[in-house]
Design a protein that fits this description.
alpha/beta; Rossmann fold; 4 helices
């Protein structure tokens, strides 16, 4: 499963990337919604975790724009990441397990 992480804080992306890759997922990063939309167009993405508050295009606007222009279905999750991203990672591991059985 390919997961797109959108967050303007590099440390948050790094923490979530480590958790998701540790669970066997492939991670693609973007620092805002504009970059995230470009990543969606550039490659196969199955799920996206978008920070709500980002500079430039925030998570809400990213979801809105994706809904207007989408050409495929993905799982979307908006997040204000906690100090540890484990709850978010657990939900994506569950999705990955269901799609790979």
């Amino acid at each position: 499963m390919n997961v797109l992480i959108l967050d303007d804080i590099a440390t948050s992306r790094k923490l979530l990337r480590a958790q998701l890759e540790g669970a066997g997922l492939v991670v693609v990063e973007a620092s805002d919604g504009v970059e995230g939309l470009a990543r969606l167009k550039a490659g196969k993405i199955d799920a996206a975790i978008a920070d709500v508050l980002m500079r430039g295009m925030d998570g809400y606007r990213f979801c809105h724009e994706y809904g207007r222009t989408r050409n495929s279905e993905i799982y979307l999750s908006l997040s204000t990441l906690p100090p540890t991203p484990r709850p978010v990672m657990r939900s994506f591991v569950a999705i990955w397990a269901r799609t790979n059985t």
